[in-house]
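U., I forgot to send this yesterday:
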Amino acid sequence: MKHTFLFLILIMASYAGKAQYNETPESIVDNFFKVYEKEGAKAAVENIYSYGDSSMQQSLKYVQDTLAHTANYMGGKYLGHDLIIKKSASPSLVVLTYLVKYRLAPLRFTFLFYKPEDKWEVMNFLFDSNTIPDLMKSIKGEFKN
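Result:
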C-alpha cells in the first residue's frame, strides 16, 4: 500500500512575533531541524508555525500529529537532512527543499519564505513521502535523447 502524505499549510499576512531582523530562511530552517532532532516533530512544527500568521494555529495539532505519525512510519528515528533545492524568485521570496532521512525512506520538506518588509515569514510548509518517484521522473527526463 502506497502512502503519500502531502500537507500544505498556507500562511499569509501578518507576522506572529518570533523572527528577528537578522534571521534568514536558512537560519530559521536550521533552528527547525535542531528542534526536530532534539524535541521531535510536534515541537518543530510549533516552532515553524511561530514564523507565520497566527491563524494557522487551528491546524497546528493536526499537522503535528500527522508529521509525527508519518516520521514513525518511515522508520522512526530522524537521521539527518540534506538541502535539495534553494531557489529565490526574488530577494523577498525563497523556497528551500530538504531530503529528510529516515531508516526506511526519506521525506521531503519544503519551506516557502516571504519577506514583505524587514522580517522573513513562513508562507508555506509542505512535507511528503513521494520523494523517490519524483526524483526518478526528473532523472529520466535528463537522460532522454
